[in-house]
Write a structure and sequence with these properties.
About 35% of the residues lie in helices and about 20% in strands. Strand 3 and strand 4 form a beta hairpin. It is of the alpha+beta class and about 160 residues long. It has a four-stranded mixed β-sheet with strand order 1-4-3-2, with helices on both faces. It is flat, with a radius of gyration of 16 Å.
Amino acid sequence: MTATSEELRPLWAVRPARPPRPAADPPQGGRTEQFVLTLTGLLPLVYEQAWQSVLGPGFRLETVDWRATRPQVQDARLAERLARETATGLPLDRGPWTHATLIRRDDRTWTFAWRYARELTDRRAGLRLLDRATEAYAVLLRGGPPPVPPRTDDLLAGPVGR
């Protein structure tokens, strides 16, 4: 069974998560916004295609498999990874301004960890991107063509040099 947009929408609408904010700007880039979603019955290649239809063909979804690890260890690794990514930041002067990882937790459960440069895209725009990716995923699952990527000017928080 696969996840539908109706199954995914409540997950990100209710459960966006952020690790603690760093005390100062990260050394290698600006601050990031981070979302962590739990997804069930996901088709990873289709999910990546959905995100590519929203962010463009250059978007790559890193996929890792943690099924051989106990759930407690998975949770600790995820917390460490999120803290490390928050501390590192993302570069503002060159790409990528977004990074996403899909972590396979067991045979049906995935964790989607997505972060982006807060200076380029605010939280509302991030939620719009999640919504568009969810809708694109549903279209692709039904066998429809991938949606045309939208104009990016309505997704950015402000000018790049801000």
